[in-house]
Known about the structure:
Blueprint: H1 3-30, E1 47-48, E2 54-55, H2 64-96, H3 108-127, H4 136-153, H5 169-199, H6 210-244, H7 252-273, H8 278-302
Antiparallel strand pairs: 1-2
Helix pairs in contact: 1-2, 1-4, 2-3, 3-4, 3-5, 5-6, 5-8, 6-7, 6-8, 7-8
Amino acid sequence: MTKAGYELFSLQAVVAAGVLYFLAFLAQLASRPPRVAAVEPAAEQVLVGAEGAAQAPATPVPPVESVRRPVLARLGITLLPMAALVHLGALITRGLAADPVRVPWGNMYEFTLTATFAVIATYLATMRRWSLEWLAPVVTGFVLVTLMADSLWLYEGVMPLRDALQSPWLVIHVVAAIIATGAFCLGGMASALYLLKERWPGRLTRMPALGVLDQVAYRMHAFGFPVWTFAALITGPIWAHQAWGTAWNWDPKEVWAFVTWVAYAAYLHARATAGWKGSRAAVLALVALASLLFNFVGINFFFGSGSMHSYAAPVVRLVLG
């Protein structure tokens, strides 16, 4: 296959993955049981026959909808790994489309494509272990919307890597940053759901208890923080020293990566020493997530031309109807 063929295949795979994510999202939403009002358990009913003998009540036949929901739930979960495999295929062929072949995260479009895959891969890796099936619609919807925005506004054609990126540290540094981003995003989702359920408990009865949401958020952040530390404070400075001659350049991207590290360190420190849990910890986690997203998007948009990381600045395409 030619380089142009690989690039076209990658685009088609992104579309196919988006369709699978969309179908999974619909199935997950349709599989959610309807919210019913809480009622007191009724007294045991006894049927009396014609001769006065007590008879056991007949076993109720479940409605058709209640039979369909488990099928839709399984379908929604089954489609996720299928979509993730197609998503991975889009990443691989994107790298194969370059000349020479390279890793598929040389610009913001590719980084977003890879980061969304990290989110779904981290979710699939922890879904069964931590019983996170309830989080599937949120994760799937987030990945779907982000992929759509990435394809519409951030797409760039395949180009060779710039000289500053010609280093093995590109793989080590960016892979660590992407894994941490995936974990932080999932932790932020759990934190946001905590605040929503605390504010409107009657409307989010399908979510687990507040304690479960709080624990899931903590586990995700506790996993992502050392990985982010490795990416931002270890491999980043090493690569910067090799590429630019100094480990710290006060570049906007570097500064905000450190601000993000401080925000997540404050979250974990507050939980470990001050006993912050619940809503206070959730708010602090979302502040840290906002810092992470600003480092990813805001720095590139507002400081891209003046940053040594300008190669990551997006070329935004306005789509006019």
